[in-house]
Design a protein that fits this description.
With 71 residues, this protein is mostly beta strands. The chain contains no helices and four strands. The chain has a four-stranded antiparallel sheet, with no helix packed on it. It is flat, with a radius of gyration of 18 Å. The two termini are 30 Å apart.
């Protein structure tokens, strides 16, 4: 948070994605859910704060699984 407001610190954008597995189980008193996602492309954008506390856009990193290439 920044001065009583919520700010996004990391954006993750998958493309061509889908749910590959969903499980619901119970081990007594502790139920558990598990979710797995598959995707072909992903883009990650951090939004860090600079030394003065101002939001700045970080370097965008992406990965394409079909091309096996990061950019």
């Amino acid at each position: 948070t920044t001065k009583n407001k919520t700010e996004t610190f990391l954006t993750i954008q998958p493309a061509d994605w889908g749910v590959s597995t969903y499980r619901l189980s119970s081990g007594g008193d502790n139920p558990m859910e598990s979710l797995s996602l598959n995707f072909l492309k992903i883009m990650v954008t951090p939004t860090p704060l600079d030394k003065s506390g101002q939001i700045k856009k970080g370097d965008v990193v992406s990965y394409d699984l079909l091309q096996m290439k990061a950019s």
